[in-house]
Amino acid sequence: MAPNPEDDLAPTKTEGFKVGEKKTIDEYQQLDQNDESLRRWKESLGLGSGKPLAVDPKDDRTAVILSLALEVEGRDDIVVDLSAAGPQALDQLRKQPFTIREGARYRMKVKFRVQRQVLSGLKYIQVTKRKGIRVAKDEEMIGSYPPNTEDYEKKFASDEAPSGMMARGHYDAVSTFVDDDNVTHLKFEWSFDIKKDW
Nearest CA to 98 among 54, 156, 145, 161? Predict the structure, then answer.
């Protein structure tokens, strides 16, 4: 039986870790009101501050992924705009590969917004294939974030593009943003080429 490609995008499970009970913003605000340390923790999440929560009434998503970028020292960032993440915009990502120089040191970064409720354990998972064969699976923990009127930005660990004649060529990738509750906030396909030079 052929392996299910969706299994590639499943987040790694940590043995013994149990996801906490899902709570609404109101439930968090009412939680142990007399506990000073819990009150400070809730304030660090932006809860109970009296400020209105960031909510776009036309957008029911909790995590709004705005962009994914490739940061290379000495070059302008290669930015993938995900703010207009409709089917046509996402389809274009796969059809328009960008170039990465072999052996280049780079770092990915994501810009996103959280609205409506606390986002728990957001992860970025990327499966990269070459000629249909999986060559890499990367998983990056982004973290837990409260709703906010300002965008968040998370920079991933630095990495190095493969190099050598065998590494040069076209790659297809599938990326997904998923949280501890296994809610997929965004999934998209894209592609890139590794070349001898930019």
Answer: 161
In sequence order, what E strands does the chain have? 63-71, 78-81, 98-101, 105-114, 119-130, 133-145, 152-155, 159-160, 169-178, 184-195
Cα separation, 107 vs 78, in Å, equals: 11
Q: For the chain, first and last CA: distance in Å?
A: 41
Question: Rounded distance, CA 185 to CA 167, Å?
Answer: 31
Residue 104 CB-density burial (10 A; 0-12 exposed, 13-18 middle, 19+ buried)? buried
pLDDT score at 127: 96
Task: Judge if pTM exceeds 0.85.
Answer: no
* φ, ψ dihedrals at 197, nearest 5°: -145, 170
